[in-house]
Design brief:
five-stranded antiparallel sheet; alpha+beta; Immunoglobulin-like; 422 residues; 2 helices; single chain; four-stranded antiparallel sheet; 18 strands
Length: 422
């Protein structure tokens, strides 16, 4: 498989992972959440009526005395939009979940939205806290990853059989399964055991409901704790978690500084076609960029390979392009034999052995000789004569290039007095 084919395969795999059609419809806030003002929500892209929007208080109360004035709000509607008052104080937070007839949380869950400041505070009574119709309880007030947790209640305060929602801000919302409801005598009353398949560190809101409506049992916000045995056997690809990317709800403030989350829409809804087109265009652009980088890299490697030249360590003259024969040293490193003359050979003429041999064409000079009488200690009647010596300068780095004929170089040696008679 070529490199281009591998890149194309990776892009196709990315396309398979894109969340096309993850939600059959979307929703968005049509007004900024503001203290003692109406909040408007619009549905786009379909959905199956009736719709429901559930508003759950999140975080602590903004009042220093700890008074909680926020109630859980649940509103049903059959049209594509709804507007209702939200009596929450400024600088408080909430999470909104939209559902349709296909199931709870089918429209998605918002992140923690921030209530903006307003001059109208008539809907707020900070001296009195509100309470739900009944209270849900969690054993040890803790939810641990892949560890059974008991959720219980007082049946005398509940109408019918209660149900419970699990809500992850900016993520998934789901119905908590109730299996094996029983009554115990250890103080946990009537309830059931639930093993949360939610990863540690996730913020989870649990909401209690009964036949009177959603949120009648209040809500409890917990952070899923770490499993001491590092048990993650209950986790899989379908486990509830925070949703990657922008949460549901469009554009709305999420902090006191007025920062917004999501994307705004002037038409009041999210254009699904525009989202799909943008994603496909981005993927095509990514593929084109990858192909361009591949060809640039390939061309760079080819150019570098073509520009490679062998290094000539001898740095020969440009005109000398004669190749060396195999298994033979370069011309300037070939040995030049040195022949040593026999010092004992001689003749009556007084000449000695032949001078040194040299292949150099440089001129040499002979050393001057001085005839003298031999020593009385010698027995030979013929005096010993000095042998001529040629001084040769070896051109190991190559013959020196000259532009004109050079004068012979003369080297003078001092006289030898070995044959002077006493």
């Amino acid at each position: 498989m070529t490199e281009i084919a591998r890149l194309a395969l990776k892009v196709l795999l990315l396309l398979d992972l894109l969340p096309f059609g993850a939600l059959a419809y979307t929703w968005s806030f049509q007004s900024t959440p503001t203290q003692c003002s109406n909040l408007s929500i619009a549905i786009s892209g379909g959905g199956t009526p009736p719709f429901n929007v559930l508003i759950i208080p999140s975080g602590s109360t903004p009042f220093s005395n700890g008074t909680e004035v926020r109630r859980i709000i649940s509103k049903e509607f059959s049209t594509s939009s709804i507007s209702f008052p939200i009596n929450y104080p400024e600088n408080s937070q909430f999470v909104a979940v939209v559902s349709d007839a296909t199931g709870f949380g089918s429209g998605g869950t918002s992140a923690e939205a921030e209530v903006e400041t307003s001059s109208d505070s008539s809907c707020i009574d900070a001296s009195q806290s509100v309470t739900p119709d009944w209270f849900l309880s969690i054993e040890n007030q803790a939810i641990v990853q892949c560890t059974p947790a008991r959720i219980f209640w007082n049946p005398s305060n509940v109408t019918g059989t209660p149900t419970f929602f699990g809500i992850i801000p900016g993520g998934d919302s789901f119905i908590i399964p109730e299996v094996g409801i029983n009554t115990t005598t250890d103080g946990t009353g009537t309830g059931f055991s639930w093993t949360p398949n939610i990863r540690e560190g996730t913020i989870l809101n649990i909401v209690g409901n009964d036949n009177r409506g959603n949120g009648t049992g209040g809500s409890s916000s917990v952070t899923v704790s770490q499993n001491l045995q590092n048990d993650n056997s209950c986790l899989n690809s379908t486990s509830p978690s925070s949703t990657a990317g922008s949460p549901a709800g469009g554009s709305y403030p999420t902090s006191t500084s007025g920062a917004s989350t999501g994307s705004s829409s002037s038409s009041g809804g999210t254009n699904v076609g525009a989202i799909v087109g943008g994603v496909v265009g981005g993927v095509v652009g990514l593929l084109a960029l990858l192909l361009l980088l591949y060809f640039i890299r390939r061309r760079t490697r080819q150019n570098a390979k073509n520009n490679e030249k062998p290094v000539d360590l001898l740095q020969a003259d440009e005109g000398d392009e004669r190749p060396n024969r195999p298994a033979q040293l370069p011309e300037y490193y070939q040995p030049d034999p040195f022949i040593v003359p026999d010092p004992t050979s001689g003749d009556e003429s007084g000449s000695s052995a032949a001078p040194f041999s040299s292949s150099s064409e440089r001129p040499t000079s002979s050393a001057s000789t001085h005839d003298a009488t031999s020593s009385s200690a010698r027995k030979s009647a013929v005096p010993r004569t000095l042998r001529p010596v040629n001084i040769v300068q070896h051109d190991d780095a190559g013959a020196a290039s000259t532009t004109k004929e050079e004068e012979p170089e003369t080297i003078e040696l001092p006289p030898a007095y070995t044959n002077i008679r006493k």
